[in-house]
Every structure is written in C-alpha cells, then in structure tokens.
Amino acid sequence: MIAASSTEIGNANRLVQRFHEDCNLRGMVSTMDYIYRAREYCAFLEIRGKTPLTADKNDLRAFLAHLKARGLKFKTIDRIYTCLSAFYEFLIIDDLVEYNPILPFRKYYLADTRMTTIPRSAS
To answer: How far apart are the C-alpha atoms of 97 and 54, rounded to whole Å?
Structure first.
C-alpha cells in the first residue's frame, strides 16, 4: 500500500476543485452532488493514506463496505459510484490516470441483482 503524502492529499483537494470547474464548464446538472461525492471519497481515501490517483480495488471495496455500513440504499450507492465514475473520467481526460476503475467495479459489485431470479429446476 502506498501512503499519500500531505502534498498528494492537498492535490486531491485541488483535483476535486478542478473537477468542479470542469463540471460547470460542461454544464452538468447536479454538479454539487458530484462534487460532494468526490470529496467524500477523497476524505475516505485520505484516512487510508491514499488519493484517487493511488486508490485500488481494495479501496473501492472498503468504500462500498463503508457506504453499506451507513445503511444506504442500493440506488444511493449506485448514484455515488456514478459520480465517482464521472470523477475518474475527468482524471483520464486530464491524463492523471489511465483507466476508470469504477466501470468494472460497478459491473461486478453493483449489478442490480434484485431483479434477477434464479429459475427453479423442474422436478
């Protein structure tokens, strides 16, 4: 695990500010929700000694567990990861990360299985 320095943590705050400016430039609706969720994620990572640039799938799993422990509903958690995906897309456009780790994570961990039924075998 790579620990984040105070400079990197400050950079995380600047990244969120730049993301905010980018959201406004793009005319995104619900901009403050995106920013709030990005800040919440960065604060969570800071406690773990990480930044969005150094986070890995274990950090994403831990964040998901943290959200579930708060009793958040599926739709709320899915919305949070939608916001984080937009944040990572911004980081890609700014050449700060090479890929969006949220996309495969959401596909695996946040697929809405509530609607899926397992067929019973005919006996």
So the answer is: 9
Q: Write down the pLDDT at residue 30.
A: 84
Q: Are 85 and 102 in contact (CB under 8 A)?
A: yes
Six token digits for residue 77: 């958690």
How is the chain split into domains, by residue range? Answer: 6-109
* Other CB atoms within 10 A of residue 45 CB: 23
21-to-18, 27, 35, 81 alpha-carbon distances in Å: 5, 10, 10, 20
* Residue 63, pLDDT above cutoff 60: yes
The torsion of the CA quartet 57, 71, 115, 64, rounded to 10 degrees, works out to 0
Domain 6-109 CATH superfamily: Tyrosine recombinase, N-terminal domain (1.10.150.130)
Q: Which two tokens stand for residue 86?
A: 């937009």
Look at residue 123 and tell me whether its pLDDT is greater than 50. Answer: no
Rounded-to-integer distance, Cα 123 and Cα 121, Å = 6
What distance in Å separates the CA atoms of residue 100 and residue 83, rounded to the nearest whole number? Answer: 12
